[in-house]
Amino acid sequence: MRRKLRLVLAEDQIMLLEAFAAILALEPDFEIVGTARSGPEALERAREERPDILLTDIEMPGMSGIDIAECLHRDKAKTVVVIVTTFARAGYMKRALNAGVRGYLLKDAPVSELAESIRLVGRGGRAIDPELARQVWDASHDPLTSRDRAILRMAESGRSNQQIATSLSLSPGTVRNCFSEIIQKIGARNRIEASHIARRNGWL
């Protein structure tokens, strides 16, 4: 008998998390070995359980699904990441693939398609939403660095330059310079517009 695929599921909305767990547990070749409701918790579960696949959303409290994938990639973990999200943005998918994500699926896909995609990834393949795969070729270049993203996210949450500087061990002057560079890179008029543009393109 073939070994079951061991899965960790990460989703911040508890109703969706429970629904995913209940539906996927019905598949005879899947074993749910852990669940998580935040990015850091998902990473911790993945490191503890060492599942075959981590199924996660992109926007998670604390860390994004892409951040988690980057950490596991640096760990040289055998766990592969499949993202299931509502965000049909080529920018997100391009970043996800660069982070080593093996699957990128939309939440409105049928359950049977999700299960088959998980099996495909479990066999070493890739499972990518076909329409998004076509969009990637035309996606705008992501000009942001990981530090740029961290600064924009903290600004979005309402943190001051001083608070951002303290969190990132930078000087307030460096943070101001970073904002100027980000605004110039994106072609925005101010930091608020820069955040909007970055979100719209899937760069955050």
Automatic annotation (TrEMBL):
Entry GO MF terms: DNA binding
> InterPro entries from the entry?
CheY-like_superfamily, Sig_transdc_resp-reg_C-effctor, Sig_transdc_resp-reg_receiver, Tscrpt_reg_LuxR_C, WalR-like
Q: Where is the HTH luxR-type domain?
A: 137-202
Phosphoprotein keyword on record: yes
Biological processes annotated in GO: phosphorelay signal transduction system; regulation of DNA-templated transcription
Q: Which UniProt keywords apply?
A: DNA-binding, Phosphoprotein
Q: Name one Pfam family in it.
A: GerE
Q: What is this protein called?
A: DNA-binding response regulator
Source species? Swaminathania salitolerans
Q: What is the lineage of its organism?
A: Bacteria, Pseudomonadati, Pseudomonadota, Alphaproteobacteria, Acetobacterales
